[in-house]
């Protein structure tokens, strides 16, 4: 497998994390334009851990997820009662606050005779843990998909458990859910925390693959794309956002035929799908039909 193919497949896996993060909030009825903030927190947090503190990648992954979950919960607490556009604006404002904070954030120290660490607008260079430890690009791609499989397993377990039903009930009608005795506030904070942790995990893996991050990477377009992936792929299953990522990165971005026209095609595709299939390609109706078809005859 050549380097370009490995890069494309790895990027599909990496951006699937932030897409699944936005998808989880969509299940609870909230539209977030700010999941790129947790992606950035995970990237910077894990990069600092491995480059400057000398932590192994496994502990850095846990550290990044913890940062993302804590930040998600802290943001959700004051915004959980906001609805619709107000919630979307609040998440976007938080994401821009994080991005601008990294523009002025400097934390430098000498490691092995070289000064390393975040340098404000100049970014954070030399996050080279996987290359210094001899992990190949192909092996790192397998690691990305192993962790993505773990996240997908979490979603599948959630969908078959009460938690998934509660999230969807809150998304359909939070007032009715509260009348059924569900603590809507607590579950929305929980969803935001889990979503933040998932996005931060993706950011951690992204930073260590590209070895360099800067605040400009985590702009509003990343948040818009993360949201659009779920809207394109469908809200009936966690495979929906991944399908959206495959369509965008795997087809539109990596195919020369769409070179220079990717954003136009992607925007038009989102508009058409929202008109024809408002819940995406893999919506709840289609997923239910597939499950009935796969169910063994009694």
Could you explain how this protein is built, in words?
The protein is mostly helical. The protein has one domain (3-294): ABC transporter involved in vitamin B12 uptake, BtuC, CATH 1.10.3470. Helices cover 71% and strands 2% of the residues. It is built from 13 helices and two strands. It has helices spanning 3-27, 36-51, 57-79, 84-104, 129-132, 137-160, 162-172, 174-179, 184-210, 220-233, 239-253, 262-276, 284-294, and strands at 109-111, 114-116. A two-stranded antiparallel ribbon has the order 1-2. A hairpin with a 2-residue loop joins β1 and β2. α1 packs parallel to α6, α3 (57-79) packs antiparallel against α9 and α6 crosses α7 (162-172). The chain is globular, with a radius of gyration of 19 Å. The relative contact order is 0.18.
First-last Cα distance: 44 Å
Low-confidence stretches: none
Helix content: over 70%
Provide the spatial order of strands within the biggest beta sheet.
Answer: 1-2
- The secondary-structure class comes to mainly alpha
Q: Which whole number gives the mean pLDDT?
A: 91
* CATH topology name: ABC transporter involved in vitamin B12 uptake, BtuC
Number of strands: 2
Count of helical stretches: 13
What would you report as the Rg, rounded to the nearest angstrom?
19 Å
Oligomer: single chain
User: What kind of sheet is the major sheet?
Assistant: 2 strands, antiparallel
The second-level CATH architecture is Orthogonal Bundle
CATH class reads Mainly Alpha
Strand fraction band?
under 5%
**Total tally of structural domains:** 1
